[in-house]
Amino acid sequence: MMARAKRLPVPPRTDTSSLVEAWGAPIDDALLSLALVHRSYANEAGGIANNERLEFLGDSVLSVVIAERLFHDYPDVAESDLSRMRAATVSQAPLASAARRIGLGDYVYLGKGESLHGGRDKDSILSDTFEALIGATYLTHGLQAARRVVLERLNFLLEDAQERGHHQDWKTLLVEYAQGKGLGEVSYEVEGEGPDHRRVFTARAFIAGIDGPVGSGRATSKKHAENAAAQNAMGALDPQ
C-alpha cells in the first residue's frame, strides 16, 4: 500500500484486500492508493497527489451510469423528475451511505485534523472517495466494469429512487421555478470559512429578475450549501 508519511496518521485498515472484495472489482494498485488519499493528508505530506482528479472522473462516470439506468427503468417519467431521482441517488448523503456499507472510511488517508475530528465518517469525504474509486475502476477496466460495480453498490438506492427523488434536487426546482415565472437565470455566490477539517460553506442564491439574494444555506460542501440555499429560496418563493 502507501508508504507512511512521517508523523501522519495511518488508517485503521491498510490491507485493502477486503475493501476490493467488498467493492466488487480489482483496481490497479497505484490508482487504488491514489483514490484513498484525501487532500488533507496530501497537503500535510508535502503536497503529494490526492484523489480529487479521480473523484472528478468518477463523478462523471457515475452520473452517466445512473442517468442511463433511470432512463430505461422509468420510460414514462419526465426529464425533470428523472433529474431529481438522479440527484437523490448520486448526491453526498446517499453516496456516503453506500461508502459506509463497504467500510470505506477505515481505508482513507486523512490529515491529522480530519482524523481527530471524525473525518472517517464525514459524508463529504466518504462520498468523494467513493467517486474516486469509481474513477479508478473506470481507468482500470473501462465503462462496462465501472457500470456493473456502480449498479451493484447503489442498487439499494435505485430501488426507491422515484420516492426519494421527490423534491430532493432543490437547485433544479429553483431553476424550473425561475424559468416558469420568466425571472431569468439562477446563480450562486459561495464563501468558505474554517480549516480544512472544519470547512463550512455559505451559499446565497440569486435570480436575475429579483433584487438581492433569494435564499441562503450552509453546509460542509459547496454543492450542498447551494442546494440548501435553493431549498431556502423555494420555501420563500413558492411555499407549499
TrEMBL record:
Catalytic activity: Endonucleolytic cleavage to 5'-phosphomonoester
Protein name listed in UniProt: Ribonuclease 3
SMART domains: DSRM (SM00358), RIBOc (SM00535)
CDD domains: DSRM_RNAse_III_family, RIBOc
Cofactor(s) required, per the database record: Mg(2+)
Binding site for Mg(2+): E55, D128, E131
All copies of domain RNase III, residue ranges: 28-142
Pfam families named among the record's database cross-references: dsrm, Ribonucleas_3_3
TM segment ranges: none
Subunit description: Homodimer.
GO biological process terms on file: mRNA processing; regulation of gene expression; rRNA processing; tRNA processing
Its biological purpose: Digests double-stranded RNA. Involved in the processing of primary rRNA transcript to yield the immediate precursors to the large and small rRNAs (23S and 16S). Processes some mRNAs, and tRNAs when they are encoded in the rRNA operon. Processes pre-crRNA and tracrRNA of type II CRISPR loci if present in the organism.
Classification via NCBIfam families: RNaseIII
InterPro entries, A to Z: dsRBD_dom (IPR014720), RNase_III (IPR011907), RNase_III_dom (IPR000999), RNase_III_sf (IPR036389)
